[in-house]
Design brief:
single chain; alpha/beta; four-stranded antiparallel sheet; 16 helices; elongated
Amino acid sequence: MGTNTDNSNINNDQEISLKKYFNIILKEKNLIIILTLIASVFGGTYSLFKKPLWSGEFEMLIQNNNDTYKPLGNKISSSINPLAGLNRTVENKTKLEILKSRSVLGPVYDFVKENDPNMELNFKKWLNDKTNIKIKLGTDILSVEYKDHDKKLILSSLLQIKEQFQNYSISQRKKELSQSIIYLNSQKQKLSERYKKSLAKFNKFSLENSLGNVDGFISLENRNDSNTSNSTNFSNQINTPLANNARQRYAMQFQMLETYETKFENLSSRLKPTSQTLINLKIDIENLKEALKRPNQILIKYKELQSTVKGNQELLDNVINSLEITKLSQARQLVPWDIITPPTINELRISPKRKQIVFTAFLSSLIFSFVIAIIKSKKKGLIFEKEDFEKLLSITFNDCINKNDLTLNTLLIKKLITNKKDLNNLAILELNEGKNETSKYFLDDITATYISLDKIEELEKFINIVVLANPGKINLKNLNIAFQYLKIYKDKIKGYFFLEDL
């Protein structure tokens, strides 16, 4: 319950405060209207005489379209490179800062100074005030805007900026190609040396181990002892290109192996398995088989060296191809960055925006005049609120007097003072520092005497007194004086009324 009461009091205080300020504004409406009107006229006049500011713009694609060449080491696809987007953003920001530097836009700044004698901006201030150069987010499109009061100068400046950017794109491309050629030549030399060393090492190893491209694994483990199976399996193994080449190199060994195996087959049908002749012949066959096998370690090393030579050769070939492509690109005529939209002047001016200026002037002056009216009222110490009167006079109003309803006002007085004789000896005191307007609030059948503050001592002559509080017409000082008199005549006072507009 306490909380609800507190909230109610807060709301009432807010309503009283707002009403108080509304009354102040209403009382000072002439001042507010005059100040607002003057400021609005001034704002409109200013917008008419202010020199218009125009803008122009163009867009260009800031990427090389001369060829599809990319330097070696920059061939990683953006689809598999998680940092590709970040790298592109950083690259574009760096490129933007270079384009906005004096080294690129210095000639444009000098051109503008020559054609606009009144311009006193330094390069940095000129860049910030006159231009708006940016790269559209997530794209390679450069947007350039230029602002000035002179349309011809805007168009000329945009053309100058476009030319400088395109010249920069060509010079930058030439620089990239030259650096790429230097880099590729150095890589060519390094890779050539690496290739020669790996090839020499491979050839040396091949010669030391009597190896070549014909060497490989030859399986002799699955040969059977029968003549038929022997011939079939051997034929299947040696009829391959690799086996045929190997047989040419080891013809004598294979011929000897065939002789031993044939002799073994012939003797095995006549001699016992335990015969020393068969045993010795079998040992010779096994030894010859082992001699015909290449050790796995040697063959693996051979393949590694061969793969290294092949890889170095491919890298060298790639560098040589890239070098030739780059040299062709350098010899060709380079194409500058493409213009997407040519330099044009925008139809709508940037400023002055007359409607906006007038509205701003109106709103600002309205707020300013409100503040002036409140300060003026505070300085005068005028009392507006019914509650303030009741608090300062220690009274409670009987009712409110409506300025526009004379009949009702008259009935309120007659209801309070029923004796007609008392009406003839009635004084109506209006708490108003200005001209007394009490006679305008009642009908003529009220024959009371109207007393103003400057004649408040005349209340002594009357038996009945009615007090009217006029908001915004009396300050705190005069109200205190009136309060002292009203305390003296409190027995004569029949009622208090608050004057208001409804």
